[in-house]
Amino acid sequence: xxxxxxxxxxxxxxxxxxxxxxxxxxxxxxxxxxxxxxxxxxxxxxxxxxxxxxxxxxxxxxxxxxxxxxxxxxxxxxxxxxxxxxxxxxxxxxxxxxxxxxxxxxxxxxxxxxxxxxxxxxxxxxxxxxxxxxxxxxxxxxxxxxxxxxxxxxxxxxxxxxxxxxxxxxxxxxxxxxxxxxxxxxxxxxxxxxxxxxxxxxxxxxxxxxxxxxxxxxxxxxxxxxxxxxxxxxxxxxxxxxxxxxxxxxxxxxxxxxxxxxxxxxxxxxxxxxxxxxxxxxxxxxxxxxxxxxxxxxxxxxxxxxxxxxxxxxxxxxxxxxxxxxxxxxxxxxxxxxxxxxxxxxxxxxxxxxxxxxxxxxxxxxxxxxxxxxxxxxxxxxxxxxxxxxxxxxxxxxxxxxxxxxxxxxxxxxxxxxxxxxxxxxxxxxxxxxxxxxxxxxxxxxxxxxxxxxxxxxxxxxxxxxxxxxxxxxxxxxxx
Length: 480
Hints:
Blueprint: H1 6-9, E1 12-13, E2 19-20, H2 23-36, H3 54-61, H4 70-77, H5 81-87, H6 89-96, E3 105-108, E4 117-121, E5 127-131, E6 138-141, H7 142-159, H8 164-186, H9 190-195, E7 198-199, H10 200-208, H11 213-228, H12 231-238, E8 239-242, E9 245-248, E10 255-257, H13 268-285, H14 288-294, E11 298-305, E12 316-322, E13 329-337, H15 343-346, H16 353-364, E14 373-380, E15 383-391, H17 406-427, H18 430-437, H19 442-471
Antiparallel strand pairs: 1-2, 3-6, 4-5, 5-7, 8-9, 10-11, 11-12, 12-13, 13-15, 14-15
């Protein structure tokens, strides 16, 4: 961190007469946090004697979900320790709540594992890399996100068969990238931080040095493939012609048109009417120019869609809209939003759940989906439910973790670390956090040790899920 200029060192008073801390006072806050919660102490993880049963937490979380889909969720989570970890944000939040916190708050992702980062299109039609899942976003301790990211990389490395020394090097490099980036952001102006982003041209240049020729080609092919994951690509993937009209094709149980849901105890006509009303109400939350864009499309069809791993069972629908003709599609996804897994431990959100997701995404992402919005639906399945809406696919792509070689995962981890630091720097006290982190390697070495310890616990929790499935306590469907 560089020296503060005299202008930045002076007290600042805002329009309401509130005096804001100087840069030096913010640095002191970080140093005070370091004394209260030593960086080496971040390595500690010991399960509490009264640790809640992780499976019990997952079952409680699932009570408000679509029950017929839950076996898919548990089947996906049982596939591997990493798959389990992806779906176990709530148990980890419960565990993190028992660890020491620096008291420095940011807008957290809440589920910052490595596959919740990825590429997508900016409104300027450039391929960018960023955090891309915000179902659990909420203001909270910044170190919780760092620990979840680091642990996900440790677990993925184990699943891929990397030796312990290699895993530790990758995790340490990931957290070191976060620390260095936060210190860089601490020396930037507020607008410089807000404008910072990772476009894939610069990312590729940074990553290429870690990869051999064949893997550089593979990365280029992956980016080219991401550009095909647009609305036209979704039209080919999800839609066809039914009774002479464009329609979403059934692929049960993963994609089920609304008209086919009657067998699940649903009145399809009533559901379709609710979804149509939801789409109209959602349009009202958009800015006028984006509402004008949406109004150029007409609704053609709705279907229920199974999404993700931990999200399976939440109500999620895709809508097919058409513009001028059948080659002018727009696919929107409306996904149910509930309380963040962090809320029980840091306090409830000030926003409706759908709006919470939208606000968090806009705060953390450098660029975003032009159709992002939220809506609350009354009387949906007999209840009032909140949804957020976005494009289904807009050049979206994610890393194929299972085929990563160690050098590739190291480069990817560093990119995730930088990206998470930028997201946190936008909403938290980046100067205080940078001061806490310091210039040495103490923090990343501590987090690597935490990640190792928590990955051990994750393996036990995954084994418990597999055992519960085998005993019949939990119903699961594999391979769906």
